[in-house]
Amino acid sequence: MKKLLVILILLTSMHCSYAQESTAIVKSKITKAEQELLDLSKQKWLWMADKKVDSLAVFFHDKSMFVHMGGSWGKQQEINVIKSGGIWYKKADIHEASVNIIGNTAILLNRITLLAVVGGNEVTNPFIVTEVYTKEKKGWKLGSLSFTKLMTPDK
User: Fold this and answer.
1) Contact call for residues 75 and 64 (beta carbons, < 8 A)
2) Which of 31, 48, 68, 130 could connect to 146 by a Cys-Cys bridge, CB 3.0–4.6 Å?
3) In total, how many domains does the chain have?
């Protein structure tokens, strides 16, 4: 009985530490490549928040496409929007993330709450973000980033 109680306490504390990270990986066991993509996605959100357009320009595929609530455009326009502050991705709270690799393509889904400044107004929205990556000689490149606004509040 004592061992069971210790195990339950350990499991509960592990769950709490993951919850503090605010990222729940949908799959229970992930591969090295899947973890690499999840880490790249997190890094991308930080680069976007910090407006690190030089890092993003290398990370975004030259033919990448971006879909927002207000329109869609390619790599250079996305870089320009971030650089100018037209959209400032202040903070993305990642609630869930999953990744599926199909050959040299990876599809990553994030359920996030995004705090952003758009046109000078601070807004918070719940999104499912679809990220599509392609594997190249020098690593993974972001090929597409699409925001789908959720109509229900975050869990």
Assistant:
1) yes
2) 130
3) 1
- The CATH number of the domain where 111 resides is what? 3.10.450.50
- At 146 the three-state DSSP class reads strand
pLDDT tens, position by position, 51-62: 999 999 999 999
Asked, for residue 38, whether it belongs to a domain, the answer is yes
Q: H helices of the chain, where?
A: 2-21, 32-49, 53-59, 75-84
Instruction: Please give the single-letter amino acid code of residue 83.
Output: K
Burial of 9 (0-12, 13-18, 19+ CB in 10 A): exposed
For residues 91 and 15, what is the distance between their CA atoms, to the nearest angstrom? Answer: 23
Contacts of 20 (CB under 8 A, 6+ apart): none
Q: Characterize the bridge pairing of strands 60-68 and 87-102.
A: unpaired
Range(s) of the domain holding residue 81: 23-149
Cβ neighbors of 51 (< 8 A, separation 6 or more) are 82, 83, 85, 88
> What's the pTM value of the predicted model, to 2 decimals?
0.78
